[in-house]
Write a structure and sequence with these properties.
By secondary structure, the protein is mainly beta. The chain is built from 3 helices and 16 strands.
Length: about 260
């Protein structure tokens, strides 16, 4: 049934890359006992479930460096896809752009389908102080959404606003465990990215020449009757001009040839 051939626009991949870049410039500051700044540490962020990082902090797989330097860090993962009916457009509407390879072709694509990506961001730390420094650098920017303009479909060149909504924040702190158990503070931030899904692209031809016959009605001044036997023929030749994506469109030129 879905005989459209292979296509892949990397929409989810582009969306999740943008999500990770939102949090890739967060630092924590470590102070000396006298209150002077000791060091500024950039918090690393990676894609993956938090469970593997918890195992990494509890077990030493014989690496050369101490396991404690792994924390603090952030990790995130996609947890769900949901269709968004509130942003649905008419299914028969199309997006059309000029083909950059030739001025006699154009690219067509049906309007994108709105989907919501559920993404969870985990903040892992050994101390509450480090975790709070990270969380407080995130929360003020989400009210409750943060909007980013993203080129989700590079083949068509259309950019879309992708709101990222902060839904909830939860905390897990195992400070009351066994003495031999290492403490891990985990903040879980749940987000929703309002992205789009795109279908296949079709290449269609551009009409460059049109011929038409038009009946020319002439009223006889003597009889007052209308004569429709006279035929006027004209030919319209259209010279399309390729417009690069992101530039101001240039009007096409027309050449008319009238024959009476």
């Amino acid at each position: 049934m879905l005989s459209h051939g292979h296509f892949y626009h990397g929409t989810v991949r582009n969306s999740i890359i943008v999500f990770g870049k939102l949090f890739n410039s967060i630092y924590i500051k470590r102070d000396n006992p006298d209150g002077s700044a000791n060091q500024l540490v950039k918090v690393p962020i990676t894609y993956g479930p938090k469970e593997k990082w918890l195992v990494r902090t509890e077990m030493d797989p014989e690496l050369n460096r101490p396991v404690e330097i792994v924390l603090p860090r952030m990790t995130f993962e996609i947890t769900d896809f949901q269709y968004d009916t509130t942003r649905k457009l008419h299914s028969l509407n199309k997006l059309v752009v000029e083909d950059p390879l030739t001025n006699t072709k154009r690219r067509e694509q049906f309007v994108p389908v709105p989907y919501n990506l559920s993404v969870q961001l985990y903040v892992l730390s050994k101390t509450q102080e480090d975790a709070l420094q990270i969380v407080e650098q995130i929360l003020p920017f989400f009210t409750p959404h943060y909007n980013v303009t993203v080129n989700l479909d590079p083949d068509m060149g259309y950019s879309y606003d992708v709101p990222t909504v902060l839904n909830s924040v939860s905390l897990t702190d195992d400070y009351d465990g066994q003495f031999e158990t290492k403490r891990t503070v985990i903040y879980t931030l749940t987000f929703t990215m309002k992205t789009q899904m795109f279908g296949p692209i079709q290449n269609t031809s551009v009409i460059t020449q049109v011929k038409s016959n038009i009946q020319n009605e002439v009223i006889d001044p003597n009889t007052g009757q209308t004569d429709v036997k006279t035929v006027r023929e004209y030919t319209a030749t259209v010279n399309p001009v390729t417009t690069p994506v992101g530039t101001t469109p240039i009007p096409y030129t027309e050449e008319w040839d009238f024959k009476f």
